[in-house]
Design brief:
Structural class: alpha+beta
Radius of gyration: 24 Å
Oligomer: single chain
Distance between the termini: 30 Å
Strand order of the largest sheet: 1-8-4-2-3-5
């Protein structure tokens, strides 16, 4: 694989020079973030309260309102819009809520804090959602001068797993009803029938495909690349260890993160458990946004004001359509453009939080912007998803809250939050500072058009004949292993396939120093495509009565 071609060429004419403004010169409609709040409820702590997602979000919302430094009742009475982030238990049509859930999550939270908003929103799924909502709500305020907007999200996954088998388990069911702008799940294009058929379900194996493609592009050994992932995340663990809301506040060395042990077992090649986003959390966060005019009328001190200087929202091509599996041009373009809108470069940032569900999500931005993975500023404000906690779709709201707190303590500095959704699929970015600035529109729509026009790879559902491995992973269960291959037929068409139970040669190939570029033979079946290192092995193992799309170690 060749070097990444810079994807931002031609985008810089879209930069917005902008100007800094004095506070008293600002248009009263200028959006400003004035309050942030976070809460956690650890099951291993003496003060564990078994809070539901609604209660966690409500408590975080009260904290955000109190953080404004003005009369809480006056602020609550002015809340015009509430927007909620979906929990994992409401992120897909087949998701379950073992302890029950509210039928109108945003209004259930509003009820708890005594607010009666005109508008309630339930946002689409994805880790981009918190930052995307900030971008959208700020734009709405700038254009209409609309009232106070409260954005919140929470997960109680740890509590649900802890109490689901309890004799006296709580019931989180609420029949609230009322107006709700339910925007749907937003899952279009994220999982195809072919991907599901070949076991490409869940985040670890998908991100592993991207990670292994990047390792091949960089021509690194397995050992060297594992240590590079460890060195990337080692400082993240230090930040998490100092964060009172972190789910795993333990400092770890690069070697400890990279070394596979019984406790740090392999999840999907090349990821051991310590490098995978941690979803067993009880965490909530909330943000309060309003116009400068409203902030003045409510008496909110200017020392609390943080402005959105730059922003962008972009989407990547579907997985099998992407020209290069080792990178996400959309995420790089979104980050670069948000900085352009802010009128600064990455060197001017004092705080950075890059979405870190897996190392590749951070490496991708580093590669595109020329950041060092071991940047002394550290690339997380909260501690990152494997260590602070991957609070469902809501992680980046915690990152924004941490960033706002940092910027208030260093007035005039800049902070960036990059929020990733899907499988390097959706990326939203915000650049923040206490420096006053009027609203600046982005050119995300124009950039998205250019990204969409880029060449896509032709993919097929059925594959027969000789091919080469383009990327790969092995999923590791407790008792079995599943090999997943992205291959290219001799005519260049891309396909998905699985290894075959009992095919030791293919198992060894996928475990070798570099499977990418290896020659394999593909055959389509009613269950999906299979690959093997030889026609003879295919005939032997694919014809066996016990054959399946997996192999056991």
């Amino acid at each position: 694989m060749g070097k990444i071609v810079p994807v931002l060429t031609g985008f810089h004419e879209l930069s917005i020079p902008g100007r800094m403004a004095l506070v008293h010169d600002l248009d009263p409609h200028t959006p400003v973030m004035v309050g942030v709040g976070q809460v956690s409820d650890r099951i291993d702590r003496p003060n564990y309260r078994q809070l539901s997602p609604v209660e966690l979000a409500a408590e975080a919302s009260r904290a955000a309102i109190a953080d404004c430094g003005a009369d809480p009742r006056s602020i609550t009475e002015q809340i015009d819009t509430v927007a909620g982030i979906r929990q994992f238990e409401n992120s897909t049509p087949i998701a379950l809520a073992p302890l029950g859930r509210s039928d109108n999550y945003p209004r259930s939270v509003a009820d708890r804090i005594g607010a009666d908003p005109r508008r309630a929103i339930l946002e689409v799924s994805g880790g981009q959602a918190p930052q995307q909502l900030v971008n959208e709500m700020a734009r709405t305020i700038a254009r209409t001068g609309s009232g106070v907007t409260l954005i919140f999200g929470a997960e109680a996954i740890s509590t649900v797993r802890h109490l689901v088998q309890a004799e006296r388990r709580p019931d989180f069911t609420e029949h609230r009803g009322g107006q709700l702008e339910d925007r749907g799940y937003g899952l279009e294009g994220l999982v195809s029938e072919s991907e599901a058929k070949h076991g490409l379900i869940g985040a670890p194996p998908r991100y592993a495909l991207f990670e292994n493609a990047r390792r091949a592009r960089l021509e690194q050994t397995r050992t060297d690349y594992a240590l590079s992932m460890g060195r990337l995340f080692e400082p993240f663990t230090s930040v998490a260890a100092r964060n009172v809301h972190a789910a795993a506040p333990t400092e770890r060395t690069a070697a400890e993160l990279a070394t596979v042990t019984e406790r740090n077992r392999i999840i999907a090649d090349p990821y051991p458990r310590f490098m995978v986003s941690r979803d067993q959390v009880n965490q909530g966060a909330a943000l309060l946004i309003m116009s400068v005019g409203t902030a003045r009328s409510l008496g909110i001190p200017e020392s609390k004001w943080v402005f959105l200087h730059g922003h962008a929202d972009l989407r990547e091509k579907d997985l099998l359509d992407r020209p290069d599996l080792s990178t996400s041009p959309a995420a790089i373009a979104a980050t670069s453009h948000a900085l352009d809108v802010a009128g600064i470069g990455a060197a001017q940032l004092s705080s950075i939080d890059l979405y870190s569900c897996f190392p590749i999500a951070v490496f991708n931005i580093c590669d595109g912007l020329g950041l060092s993975p071991t940047d002394p500023r550290c690339l997380t404000a909260s501690g990152g998803l494997p260590f602070f906690g991957g609070a469902g779709n809501n992680y980046s709201m915690h990152a924004i809250a941490e960033t706002v707190t940092r910027l208030r303590s260093a007035p005039g500095s800049f902070g960036l939050v990059g929020a990733n959704g899907g499988y390097l699929s959706k990326y939203s970015v915000g650049v923040y500072s206490t420096k006053p600035v009027e609203w600046r529109d982005s050119h995300s729509t124009e950039i998205q058009t250019r990204l969409d026009a880029a060449l896509s790879i032709s993919a097929v559902d059925t594959a027969d004949g000789w091919a080469v491995v383009e990327s790969y992973t092995t999923k590791y269960g407790r008792t079995d292993q599943t090999g997943i291959v992205v291959g290219r037929l001799e005519d260049g068409r891309r396909f998905l396939a699985n290894s075959i139970d009992g095919d030791v040669a293919t198992r060894d190939m996928l475990s070798s120093e570099q499977p990418i570029g290896q020659r394999v033979f593909a055959r389509s079946t009613g269950r999906g495509n299979l690959v093997s290192t030889s026609v003879e092995a295919m005939n032997t193992f694919a014809a066996a009565p016990s054959s399946s799309s997996s192999f056991r170690g």
